[in-house]
Each structure stands twice: as C-alpha cells, then as structure tokens.
Specification:
Elements lengths: L11 H6 L2 E3 L2 E4 L4 E4 L2 E4 L2 H12 L5 E2 H8 L7 H15 L9 E4 L3 E4 L5 E2 L2 H33 L2
Antiparallel strand pairs: 1-2, 1-8, 2-3, 3-4, 5-7, 6-7
Length: 157
C-alpha cells in the first residue's frame, strides 16, 4: 500500500456502474463478477456490495453497524450475517484475517479496505474491441458474398 498516492475518490454509485480495478482485482458489478488471479469469479450480490462499500470508503474504517445498515436496510440481521459475508469475501480473495492483504479488521471499530489503488477501467477499450469484432464480421460477410457472386457468375462461363 502506497500512502503517498492520492486516494481514489469514487462514489459507490460510480463503482456500481463502471468496471474498475483495485489490488489486482478487476470488478464488474453489473455482471456480479470479479477477475482475480486469472480466474473469473461470480460473487453473491451481498458479497459484491460489501466489496464496493469497502472501496468507496476511501481508506476510512467502516463500522459493523454502518456495513450492516448498508447491506441489509430495513431488515434485522444478527452480527453473524456480516461476519459470514466478510468471511466469504476473504475466501474469494484468498485473504487472511491475521495477515490481511485486502480487508483489515479494526478491533472494536469495523473493517478497512487496505488497497488504495482503485481506478475505473476505461470503457473506450471495450468499445474499441467491440468495433474491431464488428469490422471483422463485416469483412467476412463481404468476402463470402463476393466469393459466392464470383462463383455464381463464372460458373456458367
């Protein structure tokens, strides 16, 4: 963790709508998945929401009460619900509570996201790839039509 770098100032709404990367984790909230250690992993919605809440805190410790209220609004859940969700997220990220790389337990306070390198993945790259695929398909279709016409015209000759 580099404390000299400026902290990301992404809101949880931005994080919910846009793919981003942090600590080597590529997160795509709209598809409920992450890519970590060259594996694509689907996450349960609450686990993904927890991940986003921790990032969006921008280096601030979130209390257990804050996290519980954000994850389960208007619903009563016991303390085990948050503990289980934290455990699931740690398991997916191969994180260890005793020597954490991602999620630190702050005793009697809550949880802290340790990675400060959250950045949005530019959509232009995705759009450029999509355009390149379309161009390739158009070229193939035009080539097939041309070959078909050539064969049709010169078949009779």
């Amino acid at each position: 963790m580099n404390s000299n770098k400026p902290k990301a100032t992404l809101t949880s709404n931005q994080l919910m709508l846009t793919p981003y990367i942090t600590g080597g984790i590529i997160v795509n909230v709209s598809q409920n998945c992450i890519r970590y250690n060259d594996k694509a992993l689907d996450l349960q919605p609450k686990v993904l929401e927890l991940l986003v809440l921790l990032f969006a805190a921008n280096g601030q410790t979130l209390s257990k009460q804050q996290l519980t209220a954000a994850l389960w609004p208007d619903t009563f859940v016991g303390p085990d619900s948050l503990a289980n969700t934290i455990a699931k997220l740690r398991r997916v990220l191969e994180d260890d509570a005793k020597s954490p790389k991602f999620i630190k337990t702050v005793q009697r306070k809550g949880y802290l996201w340790l990675q400060d390198d959250v950045s949005i993945i530019k959509q232009a790259n995705t759009n450029a790839k999509r355009k390149a695929k379309v161009k390739t398909y158009v070229f193939i279709v035009v080539a097939l039509i041309s070959v078909g016409l050539y064969w049709f015209v010169y078949r009779k000759a």
